[in-house]
Amino acid sequence: MQLAELLKDWPCTVKGGSIRIEVQGIEDYAQHVKPGDLFVVRKGRKFDGYQYIDLALQNGAVGVVIEDETKLDQLKLPVPVIWVPNCLKFMSFAAAKIYRFPAEALQVIAITGTNGKTTVSHFIGQLLQALHKKVMVIGTNGVYINGKEVDLEYEHLTTLQPKHLHKILQYAVRNRVQYVALEASSMGLATHRLDYCDIDIGVFLNLAEDHIEDHGSYEKYKQSKQILAQLAKRIVLNGDDSFCRTVGLQSKKKKTYFGLGNRVHYQLQILAEGLQHTTCCLQSDKGQKVFTLPFVGEHQLQNVIAAITTVSELGFPVEQICEAAEQLYLPKGRLESIPNHLNVSIYIDYAHTEAALRAVLKTLKKTAKGDLIVVFSCGGDRDKHKRIKMGAVATKYADMIYLTTDSPRSEDPVFINSQIAAGFTSTQKYEMILDRREAIEKAILSAKEGDTILIAGKGHETDQIFKDKIIYFSDHECVQSILEKLKNKVEE
Ligand SMILES: CC(=O)N[C@H]1[C@@H](OP(=O)(O)OP(=O)(O)OC[C@H]2O[C@@H](n3ccc(=O)[nH]c3=O)[C@H](O)[C@@H]2O)O[C@H](CO)[C@@H](O)[C@@H]1O[C@H](C)C(=O)N[C@@H](C)C(=O)N[C@H](CCC(=O)O)C(=O)O
Ligand SMILES: Nc1ncnc2c1ncn2[C@@H]1O[C@H](COP(=O)(O)OP(=O)(O)OP(=O)(O)O)[C@@H](O)[C@H]1O
């Protein structure tokens, strides 16, 4: 696309060079610039992007986009320098335009909330697939088409950056995908990543304290989430959550409420709870249906009703959707059960917020036959306020706690754990074993038949980030190898 065409109708000032040049892509990371790209440069939190202009030009940038107007006359470059008022917004617009606004050819559902985005987006994907539709799911766990991970080049984030998002949406269109369920993180919304993505339905799940330090305050975190109500053509909201109710009240968009409680358009009533299953009744204007879900726990039922409501609002019959819901399964690292020969229930779960840890521990406490043992810590360099609260939650539900190491980043894991332990009661039994493998091993070895172990915080992740290194670590593989070792010992 010609630069002149790209800049049409966009507020900007251009200095130097010709605007009759072809632009192939848009890139803000100088090392990734390819010949024909526009390089977008910002002074960031960590780096001054202006220092990377030379590198971007060496890599073949055909233009440089800036947002600091004073630099317009200072920069003497062999390519056009384009000033725009807001680089992030421009990047979003330009990426959508370069890839020809692919979202317009798709039905896009964007899901936001503190907890459950990945789960609900995968549930929506599974339901649509069961209804014979081709669907892409984009989020923390990667990019999937009809349940299979797609091997594409992009930076793994919950909400992809526009330069990757629109390219992947174009790929979806070319591969005849009809629906896309994507996660909308607060950071993604705040940094305009979804501004030019045509969103048909915005789904609001819940709000709890998280990412406060990233945003500066809880108020700003809340405001970021609310952006989705402005971007989406219509909204589907959790009627049981006060933040979602407020979003609904403030929005003039068409809205549909779901929940387990009253005053909602789609209500999921719990009829009977087993150890692994819940029989429910869906009540809605679109129909009524009794069906059995392969999950227990209020939070999981909230996720299911969010997905059912969204798919019903896309025009599918509730009868068929509820039948398909009986086959739903959780995405990788979400209450993932590891079968074993010890007669111990072992689960890996991505709970890394107070609300998530509470939801999962509450659920396991109900189903646990013996003691409930939890292994966890908290990530470093973020949301320090949640540590004491997670400690209090763990103390409320767990019989034994092994404090270990998550991704401490620049912090000392002993200090992180001391902040968690500040939330424990004086009688709480706990032990700190910093090596994550050793902690998991100790939890498994100490468990009696019938006990339940929850390894929380890292779910599907496969790394641990330390001050000076990043190491490969998968909770799943770790548990498997410990179980293997124990089995071999028994056989010897
Ligand atoms: C670490 C971090 O938070 N970075 C975010 C931040 O970048 P920044 O402004 O601080 O930029 P910077 O790193 O100082 O660099 C300044 C400039 O120099 C450029 N640069 C920098 C270094 C280099 O080697 N080469 C180079 O070209 C950069 O591309 C940038 O243009 O501001 C940018 C725009 O506001 C964000 O896109 C960017 O998100 C990065 C991609 C990131 O990883 N963000 C995470 C926190 C994120 O978005 N997470 C959410 C999940 C969390 C949630 O649920 O809200 C997600 O959606 O994944
Ligand atoms: N509706 C819910 N309410 C509270 N906790 C939940 C809910 N759904 C899932 N969880 C908990 O949160 C964890 C993460 O779930 P999921 O990955 O679906 O959320 P997410 O919003 O995508 O998280 P992230 O933004 O960190 O990627 C789960 O492993 C579970 O412990």
TrEMBL record:
It comes from Ureibacillus terrenus. UDP-N-acetyl-alpha-D-muramoyl-L-alanyl-D-glutamate binds at T158, T159, S185, R193. GO terms for molecular function: ATP binding; magnesium ion binding; tetrahydrofolylpolyglutamate synthase activity. The lineage of its organism: Bacteria, Bacillati, Bacillota, Bacilli, Bacillales. The modification N6-carboxylysine is found at K225. PROSITE patterns: FOLYLPOLYGLU_SYNT_1. Residues 31-95 form the Mur ligase N-terminal catalytic domain. One of its GO terms (biological process) is cell wall organization. ATP binds at G113, T114, N115, G116, K117, T118, T119. SUPFAM superfamilies: MurD-like peptide ligases, catalytic domain, MurD-like peptide ligases, peptide-binding domain, MurE/MurF N-terminal domain. HAMAP family: MurE. Catalyzes the addition of an amino acid to the nucleotide precursor UDP-N-acetylmuramoyl-L-alanyl-D-glutamate (UMAG) in the biosynthesis of bacterial cell-wall peptidoglycan. Signal peptide: none annotated. Gene3D superfamilies: Mur ligase, C-terminal domain (3.90.190.20), Mur-like, catalytic domain (3.40.1190.10), MurE/MurF, N-terminal domain (3.40.1390.10). Its cofactor is Mg(2+). The gene is murE. One of its GO terms (cellular component) is cytoplasm. Keywords: ATP-binding, Cell cycle, Cell division, Cell shape, Cell wall biogenesis/degradation, Cytoplasm, Ligase, Magnesium, Nucleotide-binding, Peptidoglycan synthesis. The keyword Endoplasmic reticulum does not apply. It is an enzyme of class 6 (ligase). This is UDP-N-acetylmuramyl-tripeptide synthetase. Belongs to the MurCDEF family. MurE subfamily. Residues 111-310 form the Mur ligase central domain.
